[in-house]
Amino acid sequence: MQVYAEFRLPENAVICGVDEAGRGPLAGAVYAAAVILNPERPIIGLADSKKLSEKKRDSLAIEIQQYALAWAIGTSSVEEIDTINILQASLLAMKRAIETLKINPELVLVDGNKRPKINFPCKAIVKGDSKVLAISAASILAKTARDAYCLVLHQIYPQYNFAKHKGYPTSEHMALLKEHGVSAVHRRSYAPVRELIARSEMISTRTNPLG
Fold it and tell me: Please, which residues have CB within 8 angstroms of residue 5's CB and are 6 or more apart in sequence?
């Protein structure tokens, strides 16, 4: 592929695809996956995870985990997101996934236009999840791992219905946030959550002006 040309890699170079899931939600950690596919065990149907049904993603995730030469998941917490911002937290999750791989890649291909700080040759590819199979595989693993995490959040905080909206700012999620308030897993640096906290504090001050 032309994308590899600038790195002058050998024909059978170990190439890792990386993608993240969960930059847009108002709650929960951001996830990233790193995948090194096995060229001798091709996986049919790999594509951008957003273009696949949940059933197909789950099926492909099992194949990726079974047949890839190596794969790993990395995360960055709500606290890290609120401290260093979602972009940096996403890159940190990617870095953690890459550095957890049991095989060192010779080239890392990342979806998007930003690269994590790693000690491997790395190239960012806009819309890479629809152009590079290894990135497609990473997008599937990141998405399915985060969805599974949201099911755990749902068990802990059933009042927010995380199992359905996965933390994204749907009308239902916003209504539940207003009804139940901000939980420990909501991202306080995100405008809708930040504004809700400020509004709640303002009401509290008006109700009890002496604190």
Answer: none
> pLDDT tens for residues 42-67?
999 999 999 999 999 999 999 999 99
As to burial, measured by CB atoms within 10 angstroms (0-12 exposed, 13-18 middle, 19+ buried), residue 195 is exposed
- Two tokens at 160? 């927010």
Helix (H) or strand (E) holding 163: helix 162-165
Residue 129: Cβ within 10 Å count: 28
80 φ, ψ (degrees, to nearest 5):
-70, -40
What's the pTM value of the predicted model, to 2 decimals? 0.91
For residue 6, name the pLDDT band (cuts at 50, 70, 90). low
Give the residues across from 109 on adjacent strands: 17, 123
Rounded distance, CA 119 to CA 121, Å? 7
* DSSP secondary structure string for all residues of 77-103: -HHHHHHH-HHHHHHHHHHHHHHH-SS
Handedness of CA 174, 178, 179, 182 (dihedral sign): positive
Q: What is the Cα 21 distance to its own chain's centre? A: 2
Task: Delineate the domains of the chain, giving CATH numbers in brackets.
Answer: 2-157 (3.30.420.10)
Could you tell me which residues are beta bridge partners of residue 16?
108
